[in-house]
Recover the amino acids of this structure.
């Protein structure tokens, strides 16, 4: 399992540098909706997914805080959302693995 994470940790910078070479610096811009925020196992989490998932929290923060406080909190909201998406993908992967192993052991 650890070997797989090391593999992806080494592969990710290579993919990013190739994207930069062929697509220009826009790939590295966090405001780009296709910007890759994380790679979990074989799944990619983009900036667009993070923004869509955090939309309700962003709307609530916008109505709750002043512009200055909102600007300070928006990055925290996006980071918490990214962590949530990573955790969710890891949990789904573990659940699928458990179901698969259970199927093999029962059959």
């Amino acid at each position: 399992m650890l070997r797989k994470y090391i593999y992806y940790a080494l592969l990710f910078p290579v993919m990013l540098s190739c994207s930069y070479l062929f697509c220009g610096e826009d790939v590295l811009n966090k405001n780009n909706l296709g910007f890759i925020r994380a790679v979990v196992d074989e799944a990619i989490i983009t900036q667009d997914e993070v923004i869509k998932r955090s939309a309700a929290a962003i709307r609530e923060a916008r109505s709750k805080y002043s512009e200055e406080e909102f600007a300070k909190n928006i990055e925290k909201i996006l980071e918490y959302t990214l962590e949530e998406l990573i955790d969710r993908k890891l949990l789904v992967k573990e659940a699928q693995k458990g179901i698969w192993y259970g199927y093999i052991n029962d059959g």
Q: What stands out?
A: Confidence is low (pLDDT under 50) at residues 18-22, 24-28.
